[in-house]
Design brief:
Strand order of the largest sheet of chain A: 3-5-6-8-7
Helix content of chain B: 55-70%
Oligomer: heterodimer
Structural class of chain A: alpha+beta
Number of domains of chain A: 2
Order of helices and strands of chain B: EHEHEHEHEHHHHH
Largest interface: A-B, 40 and 35 residues
Number of strands of chain A: 8
Number of helices of chain B: 9
Chain lengths: 359, 224
């Protein structure tokens, strides 16, 4: 399966090797002090042998099933019970460590990795029973060891489960991202094709004249609307409540006759500010429609100047603006944001409304 | 002067048309030929455009940006590097904003959307061949944004800057004024307005080239 899974199993094997080296060394050094040195040697050899076998077995994904794990735990428990073959009963009762010591925790970790919390706790239960069965009396040391065993079983199981869920979530995220990218790539290609054809129809229609010109005009409007949608991503609220002003202006402008000029990079603003400014722009464009002509061209320029965002709405109307100074609504909105609106009109060169908002 | 045949203006510029859409290729070629331009060839992808441009050396390459195999931006860069006399006019449908800016930085001197009329296209090709910059309001907005971005960035001193006059001209174009209207408004000659616009483009191209050279030297030095 996944890389994470093999890593966890490898970690168990590494732990098993480190502990077997430690325990074997301690037992060999201690050989003179035990009652049955030969048994101690044989058991140590057994531990090393099982360490080798289990390392190979756990490296194979198909073998990491209950027969292997049950064998592993049985051998660990048997090693604990074998302590009495090496040590005299009274020393065991006094709280002498078991013969395999922390080596048995490798089997416990394997159970925790395989069956998470439940596996870790179950393995801890089996090993505790084996340990307690050895001892005629229970010392504080023994209790400490047993509690530690349960604790390790639970925590290791919990962490293994957590890591698996995290990896599953990560893989899901990667999958979704890849799917989204593919969808975007496809939609770009499709849109590009549609845009090409619409632009072509518009062009040929204008050349042919008559009814074809009307068809061409309609195709042109659709091309303009689609281009606005492709160039922007709607409902794009970014982390931190920020929005790209270009997206808002791109989607809210009427299909055609509004020409947007903006930087190539996002123009980020606070969501509330962005919405208010976009509404003010929409009003200004609406005014162009009302005062110049229903299909008059309007140019919208977005600029950043220091911390200010400036949006200029310009039309090519006669430029004298009777009643155009009732820009009260725009000015009201902008004053709330700490901004301003200026209207410039040059006879014969149209009218410009400059909206300035500090970020 | 015979009334039957209008005197053709001096022989039109030679053109290479690059577009992956066959209908578009044909339409553009037809319009250009009808207007007296000499269409030396067509190409349907970026790599082919680079090869054909090297072989036929056109005055103007009419370049779509959305191309298979090699993007229009890359092809523009290679064509300009191989033949600095060739000029590239970008003719793009989707108005992919950052693409257009990249194409200009790579050396394109004009940009037109595909919804432009045949007359506008022919006019743009002639102007491009004559060395003029073809601007839309959208492109002017992109350039203004790019200069502001560079000015706010870390390399303020070495980066290119617009003069006050260039900014003024660019802003007016971005607000939809034609070069002629700008000239009237600022009481300048058409030629002067054109110069300001060309400078605004060229400074970015030079900066971009210098950046590429610097990058090449740095990565080269790192290897040793």
């Amino acid at each position: 399966m996944s890389g994470l899974d093999s890593s966890l199993w490898r970690a168990v094997s590494v732990f098993r090797w480190l502990t077997v080296i430690y325990v074997a060394t301690v037992n060999l050094v201690d050989l003179d002090n035990v009652e049955h040195p030969l048994t101690s040697l044989l058991l140590t050899a057994g531990m090393v042998t099982w360490t080798v076998i289990s390392t190979v077995a756990y490296a194979t994904a198909e073998l990491r099933k209950w027969p292997l794990l049950a064998t592993d735990l049985t051998i660990a428990a048997a090693m604990i019970l074998a302590t009495r073959l090496v040590e005299p009963a009274e020393r065991i009762a006094q709280g002498e460590p078991t013969f395999p010591q922390m080596w048995v925790a490798a089997a416990l970790l394997a159970w925790a990795v395989r069956w998470q919390r439940r596996g870790g706790v179950a393995a801890a239960a089996v090993l505790s029973v084996a340990d307690l069965a050895n001892r005629a009396a229970i010392s504080a040391e023994t209790v400490k060891g047993v509690v530690l065993l349960w604790f390790v079983g639970y925590v290791a199981g919990y962490v293994a489960g957590l890591a698996r869920r995290a990896e599953a979530a990560f893989q899901e995220a990667v999958r979704i991202q890849a799917a989204t990218q593919e969808r975007e790539r496809l939609s770009r290609r499709i849109h590009d094709g549609v845009l090409q054809v619409l632009a072509l129809v518009q062009r040929r229609g204008a050349e042919l004249g008559g009814d074809a010109a009307e068809l061409g005009r309609l195709a042109g409007e659709q091309e303009h609307a689609l281009r606005g949608l492709v160039a922007t991503s709607p409902d794009g609220v970014l982390p931190g409540g920020q929005m790209d002003l270009r997206d808002l202006l791109g989607t809210s402008r009427d299909a055609s006759h509004v020409h947007l000029s903006a930087p190539a990079e996002p123009v980020l603003m606070d969501q509330h500010q962005a919405n208010e400014l976009a509404a003010a722009v929409a009003e200004a464009v609406h005014n162009v429609r009302r005062h110049v002509a229903a299909d008059a061209d309007a140019w919208v320029l977005v600029e950043e100047e220091g911390d200010d965002v400036i949006v200029t709405v310009r039309d090519d109307g006669p430029g004298i603006a009777p009643g155009r100074l009732e820009q009260a609504a725009e000015q009201g909105r902008l004053r709330d944001l700490g901004g301003s609106a200026t209207v410039t009109s040059i006879p014969g060169q149209g009218t410009e409304v400059e909206l300035r908002v500090p970020r | 002067m015979s009334p039957a045949e209008p005197t053709p203006s001096p022989p039109g510029p030679s053109v290479l048309v690059v577009d992956d859409h066959p209908m578009w290729r044909d339409a553009v070629e037809r319009d250009l030929v009808a207007a007296g331009c000499e269409v030396l060839g067509t190409a349907s992808d970026g790599a082919m455009a680079v090869r054909v441009a090297a072989a036929v050396r056109p005055d103007v390459v009419v370049m779509d940006l959305q191309l298979p195999h090699q993007s229009g931006v890359e092809a523009t860069r290679e064509i300009i590097t191989a033949g600095p006399k060739t000029r590239v006019l970008v003719l793009s449908a989707s108005g992919e904003q950052s693409d257009v800016l990249e194409a200009v930085k790579a050396g394109a001197t004009g940009y037109l959307v595909k919804s432009a009329s045949a007359a506008e296209l022919v006019d743009a090709v002639r102007r491009t061949a004559a060395g003029e910059a073809t601007f839309t309001s959208g492109l002017a907005g992109l350039l203004l944004g790019e200069y502001r971005r560079l000015a706010a960035g870390p390399e303020t001193e070495s980066g290119p800057q617009l003069s006050e006059r260039e900014t003024e001209v660019l802003r007016l174009v971005a607000k939809g004024l034609t070069a002629k209207q700008v000239a009237t408004r600022l009481v300048l000659s058409h030629r002067t307005v054109q110069n300001h616009l060309q400078n605004a483009m060229q400074k970015l191209q030079v900066h971009n080239r210098a950046g590429l050279v610097r990058y090449a030297i740095e990565s080269g030095l790192d290897e040793d």
